[in-house]
Amino acid sequence: MKDIITLAIESSCDETCAAVLKNGRYILSNVVSTQIDLHKKFGGVVPEVASRKHIENIQPVIQKALDDANLTFNDIDIIGVTYGPGLVGALLVGLSSAKALAFSLSVPLIGVNHVEGHIAANFIDHKDLNPPFICLIVSGGHTHLVEVKDYGEYEVLGKTRDDAAGEAFDKIARALDLGYPGGPKIDKLSKIGNKNAIEFPRVYIDDESFDFSFSGLKSAALNYLNSKKMKNEDIVVEDIAASFQEAVLEVLVNKSIKAAITKGYDKIVLAGGVAANSRLREMFDEKGKEHKIDIKYPSLALCTDNAAMIGCAAYYDYLKGKVSDLNLNAVPNLKLGQR
Amino acid sequence: MKVLGIDTSSKVAAVAIMDEDKLIGEYIINSNKSHSEKLMPIIQEIFSQCNLTVDDIDLVAVCIGPGSFTGLRIGVATAKSIAHSKQIPIVCVNSLETLAFNMNLSKGIICPIIDAQRNDVYTSKYTWENNSLLCIEDISVKNIDVLIDQIKDRYEQIIVVGDAVDIHKEKLESLNNIYISPNSHKVPRASSVCQIALEKYKNNIIDDYMTANPLYIRKSQAEVEYEERQRRMGENG
Ligand SMILES: [Zn+2]
Question: In what residue span(s) does the Gcp-like domain sit (chain B) (predicted)?
Answer without folding.
Answer: 32-225
